[in-house]
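Q: For a teaching handout, I want to show students what a protein-ligand complex looks like in token form. Below are the inputs, and the small molecule is manganese (II) ion. Please produce the holo structure.
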Amino acid sequence: MKSDILLIEDMKKEYSKFKKLIEKSNNILLITHKGPDFDAFASCLILKNFIDTHYPHKNVVFKSRQSPTQKLPFMDQITISQVINTENEELVVILDAGGWDICIQKEDTIQITTAKIAVVDHHQTKGLNADVVINNQMSSTTEQILDFCMSVKGKKYVITQDISTLGQIGIVYDTGRFAYDNTTPQTYELMAKLRRVYALDLEDFEYKSTKFPSESLLAIKVYIQNLQIVGDMAYSYLNKSDINNLKLSKIGINSAQEFVRDNILRYIQGVHWGFVVKPSFTVENEWKVSFRSSKGYQEVASIAEALGGGGHQYASASKVIANDGDQAVKMILESIGKLSKGTTSPLQSSPSPTP
Ligand SMILES: [Mn+2]
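A: Here is the structure, written as tokens, with manganese (II) ion included.
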């Protein structure tokens, strides 16, 4: 909610609380959401570098289950770990996520840690009650963490070429090259600052980050076959039989779902919003649904929230428990139907005049 945006004074207080937590803790663990995107990696690596530089005696570990798909500065400092367990950490910093649920898998034990918890995020959905929550709903967690670093260290915080690169990557990725609504004058100001240090080749970054594995092609084909258009909405899904018969891989499905979500769904003429369903691969009969809407057409955060998920106004996600993909779709459509009948958050039945 916009009203949850912290006032500048309140944020300064949170910044100093976060700084004190870092200073008090010798063992610090950084984690982010599953399937980390470039904002997640960039913000974690910026914070790790900040602590390593300014507090060299501290032990700071950034754990992730996977590596980034493109070369990033400091990426050799990521601790690849399939299970994230509680160890000797005194402070856990959760970045680019509001709570445990989107960060942990069932084998993990980190959620039962007795350490202090800090959250650094930019999503609208309210997360857990952590010891510190840093969230001004900026363009990206990368912008938020850089603001923290610059604010608490002032001129002592040096933006190196590596930090500039990470900053630009995180911001460009999460703002869709400054096209999304989350881009503010402050975002541009920070970007100007970063680019004075080093002008990253954004075209090259965009090209490389848009590439997809060839094994996603078959899954894209099935998603297109299963796609349905209802009014100004489109949706698609995969069924277990599609996955088994065609031996679709997890990597192929994940990238196909992203491709359909970001390049097809609301690009069909007359369609402005919709959702794509994929299996979660972690829990049996669990499906993940991503909602997307063109600006001004459909508030999809409330739909995801009604299903127990969350996200942004025009980009949100949730989990659904169902026997098959088409059953998950049925439940999602029912939930959308119920919301559109409600009085508090009516869904638009016709496109708004906003372009
Ligand atoms: Mn992000």
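A: Two things your students might notice: Residues 39, 96, 122, 140-141, 174 surround manganese (II) ion (CB under 6 Å). The mean pLDDT is 92.
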